[in-house]
Automatic annotation (TrEMBL):
Gene Ontology BP annotations: DNA integration; DNA recombination
Lineage, highest ranks first: Archaea, Methanobacteriati, Methanobacteriota, Stenosarchaea group, Halobacteria
Top-level taxon: Archaea
Name this polypeptide is given: Phage integrase family protein
Domain Tyr recombinase, first and last residues per copy: 200-391
SUPFAM superfamilies reported in the protein's UniProt record: DNA breaking-rejoining enzymes
UniProt keyword annotations, A-Z: DNA recombination
Molecular-function annotations in GO: DNA binding
Keyword Cell division: no
Amino acid sequence: MSLDELVDVYWQDIAPKRYRDGFDEDRDVPTYDWLTEHGYSGIAYALREHHDLTPKQFFVDVVGLENEESVGWEWNVEHEATVNALELYLNSIQTRGGRAESTVETHRTRLAKWVRTYRELHGTDALLEPLSELDQQPREIERCLAVLDVFDEELSTDRSKLEYLHVARAWYAFVKRRKYAKYNPLAEASEEFGWEASEPDPQALSASQVRRIYSEVDSPESGLLVVALAGWGLRPSEVAALHVGQVVLDAEDPHLSFSDGERKNGPGEVTLLYGVDVVADRIDALSDRETWNGYLFPSRSSSTGHISVSTIRRRFKQLADTAGVVVDGETPTPKMGRRFWYSAYQEAVGEVLEGLEGVAEDQGSSSTEVVLRNYLSRAQERKARRRRMYEKLETAFS
């Protein structure tokens, strides 16, 4: 499992459980005992053996949770006036608002993510500048909504999305009250999204539900769409932008290659344990087109050259609707297909460890992870894990 995928496991699976257990999922680092108790001991092994990281190093340095031993804070924001306004807001909610220090730090973390995402989208972190002119208001509202579009894609629950919106909106309201701004670009932003605070944690499709949806595919294109989401665990945005140049159909190690900027958490590879024939058929079909641009989901009407994320969502929901698949009374979304992959992977890792319990007992080892580390090579462990995962995918797509 790549670091990118492990980060997704944290935010999509572990973070909601941490919240229910009373922890701050944006700050508190899970202990090894907590991970083991909740069925995530395999993550510690994967980090140690494949990435040379301890769980704490991963959660602090990669995921970005709070390190209680760290001192100071760097916003990494060049615009001094924006930094001053951020610090002024945090000081105000602590001294005048009486907020607990942990709450203040949560606001700091979420504001930092807001500024970072804004800068990545718009090339500047001078958030105050466009707020001084009312004629900038329509364009700035659109820029802020674009940030929320990213959060809508990246964050796993409506509750998380709303919490980020509430913090950012509170900061904009603060700078408006203090006359650093003439308007709040997020004042009515909640009307743009159907986010609900009471939304439960997102569900994963079951293997039988994936199978029913896959049974409705009627073309190499729709088949690839379902396999890419539920069989490879890709984000809808990654599916929409898939390019033939990313596909490596090596007989020993077929995979997708993502360069820097193509995935949320940086470059990496996604192993194709299942569906090699599906992507090969799609490439063969597209290769016959004289004007093919290389995208696996091309679009002549789009400026990007490929279909949009909304089209991916619409087509997936159409397949699910035709199959009669319903989750909590609603037609499932692509995110539920993607979560099937992560749920299946966690089960596969757990089953490999469970299979070593007898060996651990016979050898007097303290845990199955010790056996896995000392008695199986990395190649053997990877082969066992992939075999289990392949069986789960085959069950879903057969």
